[in-house]
Amino acid sequence: MEGxxxxxxxxxSERGLLAPGDAASQLRAPRYRVLAAFHCLEELGLxxxxxxxxxxKVYRISHLGEEVLARLESSDLASILExxxxxxxxxxxxxxxx
Length: 98
Hints:
By secondary structure, the protein is α+β, with helices and mostly antiparallel strands. The chain has one domain (2-97): Winged helix-like DNA-binding domain superfamily/Winged helix DNA-binding domain (Arc Repressor Mutant, subunit A), CATH 1.10.10.10. It contains five helices and two strands. Strand 1 (47-53) and strand 2 (56-61) form a beta hairpin. The termini are far apart.
């Protein structure tokens, strides 16, 4: 799954906006795996849904996602994803206190 996450993140960065179905077609990956990957990326704060209608969503890369892609060259994915986990935790804490 790690390879798919990185491929999707790169594709969203390249395209600007991307729906999971389009990503599945581009990457020739099963739609259910791509949908699961988008859900993981969204929970980590690496992509953001910019359009929602029913179950259809369009995503863009977040600032954290851009930072992760920039760091992929020099770090392993596990240490980079810790950034997303801590950012998600911080985001949840701040929304709970609002």
